[in-house]
Amino acid sequence: MGARLYVIPASHPATTAELMLRHKGIAYKRTDLLPVVSKGVVRLAGFPGITVPALKIDGSKVQGSRQIARELERLRPEPPLFPADPELRAAVEEAERFGDEELQHPLRQLLWWAVKRDKEPLRSYSEGAHIGIPIGLAMATAAPIIALSARFNEADDEHARRALEALPGLLDRVDEWIAAGVLNGDPLNAADFQIATSIGLAMTMDDLRPAIESRPAASLAKRVVPDYPGHAPAVLPPEWLAPLRGDPETSPR
Ligand SMILES: N[C@@H](CCC(=O)N[C@@H](CS)C(=O)NCC(=O)O)C(=O)O
């Protein structure tokens, strides 16, 4: 089974796809792309959309982490990504949908906001990647990519503050699913791979890690993505972090 996965290094949904390929024991080649450039490359490669992960497998093209989960399950049912029990499967699918539609994007916005403020950490997110040009050159020419990515992802002050306000509630939901046995059980499922990468990415940010590390969500991330690449030193205004400390009333707009 020939497989090629298009990724942006340290992209959380792309890491999800990679983990699921490994879970299935499917050998694959990886094409590492710079953000923004990735959009043109995946279109040129024949995909209908502009995002990663994008997977060519067995002659078909599949884009999107949830779509990839289903295609892998169809092509190679064992070991499964979804539980056989219908009730548990429905819960796993809801957690997976939440991970894709609700959890991924605020973290993407917070990371781009931080990188917009200080681009240097971007280097650490590309560790081990093969982006086709030396990392020094990529860093020297990163400013337009950062500006476009921040705009494309609406990583402005307003959205960053909204993301921080939402984060405790999002983490609570992950912890609840872990307590209910939907996440972090045995074997790992598609929702584990979907959600753990977002938590792993969040924990690379010094601003966010203290609010996560003592939670069950952190155990899931440490189990599934113990070596998530990248490190972003604290850069968010401390008053914006009030919701993470549990004192939203001290955070007036
Ligand atoms: N929800 C989609 C999200 C895909 C997505 O937005 N991927 C980002 C990377 S995390 C992307 O390709 N962005 C284009 C860019 O940064 O230029 C999924 O799970 O596949």
Proportion of beta-strand residues = 5-15%
Task: Report the structural category.
Answer: alpha+beta
Query: Count the helices. How many?
Result: 12
Spans with pLDDT under 50 lasting ≥5 residues? none
Helix/strand order, N-terminal first: EHEHEEHHHHHHHHHH
Number of strands: 4
Q: Cα distance, first to last residue?
A: 54 Å
Roughly how many Å is the radius of gyration? 18 Å
Care to describe what's here?
- This protein has 253 residues and is an alpha+beta fold.
- It is built from twelve helices and four strands.
- The chain has helices at 12-24, 37-44, 65-75, 86-117, 122-125, 135-140, 142-152, 157-179, 190-202, 209-212, 216-224, 242-245, and strands at 3-7, 29-32, 54-57, 60-63.
- It has a four-stranded mixed β-sheet with strand order 2-1-3-4, with helices on one face.
- Helix 1 (12-24) packs antiparallel against helix 9 and helix 4 crosses helix 7 (142-152).
- The mean pLDDT is 95.
- The chain binds glutathione.
- The site of glutathione (GSH) has 17 residues, from helix 1, helix 2 and helix 4.
- Residues 8, 11-13, 35-36, 38-39, 51-53, 64-65, 100, 104, 108, 149 line the site of glutathione.
Task: Describe how the helices and strands are arranged.
Blueprint: E1 3-7, H1 12-24, E2 29-32, H2 37-44, E3 54-57, E4 60-63, H3 65-75, H4 86-117, H5 122-125, H6 135-140, H7 142-152, H8 157-179, H9 190-202, H10 209-212, H11 216-224, H12 242-245
Parallel strand pairs: 1-2
Antiparallel strand pairs: 1-3, 3-4
Helix pairs in contact: 1-3, 1-9, 4-7, 4-8, 4-9, 9-11
The site of glutathione has 17 residues, from helix 1, helix 2 and helix 4.
